[in-house]
Automatic annotation (TrEMBL):
It comes from the Bacteria. It is a multi-pass membrane protein. InterPro entries: MetI-like, MetI-like_sf, UgpAE/MalFG_permease. Residues 13-36 have a biased composition (Pro residues). SUPFAM superfamilies: MetI-like (SSF161098). Belongs to the binding-protein-dependent transport system permease family. Residues 1-50 are annotated as: Disordered. Keywords: Cell membrane, Membrane, Transmembrane, Transmembrane helix, Transport. It is found in: Cell membrane. PANTHER family: BLL4140 PROTEIN, DIACETYLCHITOBIOSE UPTAKE SYSTEM PERMEASE PROTEIN DASB. This is Sugar ABC transporter permease. Residues 121-336 form the ABC transmembrane type-1 domain. GO terms for biological process: transmembrane transport.
Amino acid sequence: MSGPRLGRAVAPAAPPPPGVVPAPGLTPPDLPPADLPPAAAGTRPPVVPRRRPLRTRLGAYLLLVPATAAVAVGLGYPLVRQLVLSFQEYGLAQQFGRPAEWVGLANYTELLSDPYVWAVIGRSIAFCLVNAALTMVIGMALAVLMAKVGRAARMTLQVGMLLAWGTPVLATMTVWQWLFDSQYGVVNWLLAEPLGLDGWRYHSWLIEPLSFYAVATVIVVWMSVPFVVFTVYAGLLQVPTETMEAAQLDGANGWDRFRLITIPMVKPVLFVVALLQVIWDLRVFTQVYVLQRAGAPTRDTHLLGTYIYSLSKEFSMAGAMATIMLVLTLALTSFYIRRMLREEEL
């Protein structure tokens, strides 16, 4: 091979000595000159990514417009309206045409200076955290059990939890009220007859606040567990069996495999489920409201949801309390949101 290369003439290669066979691909003509720059030596220049056309980028954003508009109308307008009402004096008179008076932070000052409001907030936070923790523990245990048992037992668990999850809330509350009825309830009968606790024969579960919240906790957890079970079970199915078998061969027992392999792999799922449980349990309403209507002392058993409903005749106060509840929800879930964002960055 001879001829010009980048402006320099290359002399023809001398034939190899007799008896010497040159290695393929390493003949002198194929070797680049030592004084040429790297680009001339055969290295590729860096690839500059091509910028997508403006039309393509705008098309992707335009596809989000319908969903964004629906969310803005369905969620944004009520939120803005609630925030505006919280700064006004808005009651029944304003419903019939009287102009609303702007009062600024007066509603928030009145609410946050009331010790009863702080008692309701404290009860709601405690109820939320206890229920979310119990729901997560029981749901994870049942999800692991469902992954270990046979097909027949797994189908039985799935059907039972689907029935518990799909039953309307009011129908479920009717059944639970009969179970805890002070005269004919099954729970009181079990405590009095088989267990011999005669003091619980006619016990009223809804009169005392502590037992009221115990009954509400049982109902809320029972209705929330199926969602956790199905979600965590779907995450457990994504754990590679090869990894678990390798850990077992290395001597890791069942608890170590669950703690060091399974939990880290399904951690994103657990974060999302825990976040949703905290939000749902903080704004629980139907279960507590129905139990209150069954004979419980309303003032001593109010949570945030039922207390806001009790302010429904004073729209401005209800809006201010709902805004406080929103801020409290964001404060309780900020930890989970930061953890999820950190997981996505990794």
